Amino acid sequence: MITAEVVREQFEYNPLTGLLYRAGKVAGYIQSRGYRVISVCGIKTQAHRLIWLWLYGEWPTEDIDHINRVKDDNRPWNLQHISHKLNTQRRQGGVSFHRRSNKWRAYVHRDGEHIHLGLFETKEEALEARRKYETDTVSKQTM
Q1: Which residue, 52, 45, 56, is CA-closest to 66?
Q2: Distance CA 2, CA 45 (A)
Q3: Quick one: pLDDT at residue 48?
């Protein structure tokens, strides 16, 4: 079993970069799905789960979500412990260009329902609307 003590002994963690270092070098590699993977005690583990263990002293009991959706951005503020169901919901839906209106559309799929978040002049505005929806949803479910 990999413990927080083992991780803290074998690695240095830089919260400004979100990277774990071993012997002065960035540990691990980015796998095809976009997550950084690191071998500890002969076991390949996703870096964000090791960092959670490093930070909080215990393994996450559910999913660790990357708030900004960048799978190898493991800075503390970007990691949140959420249910698998909520993490799955966050992955569904998104942003697309709506040709009839010549605007960007933000949407999500939640519990089998399509939720339209609005039409926006720019892709960045649509992405921000989606991020705000996700942040508000996570906040409500963790209260």
Answers
A1: 52
A2: 10
A3: 97
- At 88-130, the pLDDT tens digits run 666 656 777 888 999 988 887 766 677 889 999 988 898 888 8
* Distance between CA atoms of residues 127 and 105, nearest Å: 9
Q: Which two tokens stand for residue 96?
A: 């697309």
Query: Residue 11: what pLDDT?
Result: 97
Cα Rg of the chain (Å, integer): 18
d(CA 98, CA 47): 37
C-alpha 58/C-alpha 43 separation (Å) is: 17
CATH match for 4-82 among 3.20.20.70, 3.20.20.60, 3.40.630.190, 3.90.75.20:
3.90.75.20
What are the residues whose beta carbons fall under 8 Å from the beta carbon of 5, sequence distance 6 or more? Answer: none
pTM: 0.67
Question: φ and ψ at 31, to 5 degrees?
Answer: -80, 175
